Amino acid sequence: MAYAPESEALEICRDLIRIDTSNYGDDSGPGERKAAEYVAASLAEVGIESQIFESESGRASVVAQWGNRSSSRPGLLIHGHLDVVPAQAGDWSVDPFAAEVVDGYLFGRGAVDMKDFDAMLLSVVRARQRAGVVPDRPITLVFTADEEAGGVLGAHWLVEHHPDLFEGCTEAIGEVGGFSTEVGGKRLYPIESGEKGIAWMRLRARGTAGHGSMRNDDNALMHLAGGLLALGEHEWPEEPGPSMQLLLAKVRELTGSDGSADELLAHFGPAIRMIGAGIRNTTNATMLQAGYKHNVIPGEAVAYVDGRYLPGHADSFVPQVQKIVGSSIAVENYITDVALEYPFEGDLVDAMTVALHSQDPDAHIAPFVMSGGTDAKAWEKLGITSFGFVPLRLPADLDFTALFHGVDERVPVSSLEFGAKVFDEFLNLA
Length: 430
What we know:
The chain is α+β, with helices and mostly antiparallel strands. The chain has two domains: 274 residues, Aminopeptidase (3-Layer(aba) Sandwich); 141 residues, Alpha-Beta Plaits. 29% of the residues lie in helices and 26% in strands. It has twelve helices and 19 strands. It has a six-stranded mixed sheet with strand order 1-2-6-3-7-18, with helices on both faces. Strands 8, 9, 16 and 17 form a four-stranded mixed sheet that branches. The protein starts with 8 loop residues before the first helix and ends with a helix.
């Protein structure tokens, strides 16, 4: 068979989607074991040995060593996660775990986040292994558990319990970035060079419990509601860092326009929901807990807020939230993780750029700071520089960022094939 790195991407992605690896954030999901076994078998079929590590029963990650292990060059870590967020089948137009192809799109939970990259990577690795075209540097392939719940049972567990697996790795490639967007009538591929820190907070308001029919000027629910309203109305200032400054400069170049950061990022259309979050801190209330009977005023009300802070704001962010919501509400750290940002320069950046141009000569490329978090936060503990690079050339009218954790998650089949070809060329250069 002729060398075709993209040849298996679709079928592998369909196979992976059909393995339900929904992560509910507790121990109620199916786990990643079946998907891990599929990945290990796919690698073994072409002569690549791997190991499956379980942090808890069924919570499985796969690690394989590949490439030229005798090379003096530093190691490259390439990673994807096997878990997906849950899907409510009744909300979808197709079965979210059937992996149907409809009108040129592969539908399914994980089609974008991120079994597409797992499949592209496996397709490329298998093709190269069969053809004897192995990269001339050490490569560590990792397919992790639990990324959708912070990676505690996946990447962070591997770093804590098996750091030796990553010895020699200095750089990493994973999600999110490398997908095309339309800006000024031109295709721009943002590559993740940083991601915001995580500050998930619990806001606790206390008051005086009492009868719902009586006057009560110390109502915990009303204290909490006032604080959440103030937080929702707060306008966090534009504070773009180095990566976002480069992105804004690229937008100016492509559009000939100027203005505020928000005005420039509006050129991304719906993708501003993700990309626009990279210039400021954000807070979103996500859960509420209070009360137990209609006519009883509770003595306590609790809200959970998803806070994301820019690199450099780790120490100031939560105190600012406390100031905004007021002294009647206690702001408590619930889950925290670091913000990351790396210089957008060097051989790896050059390799990504040239690889994209090999399949799309008209591509424009710039870095960005991602709104969410990835397993890169775990690799940072080992001093590994990480970039998000899942190359996809997408239709201009596809609202791609809405598909992350969204209903009818889907990826164009042509994009899977494009991505595999780009990533294959990247491995020639990296």
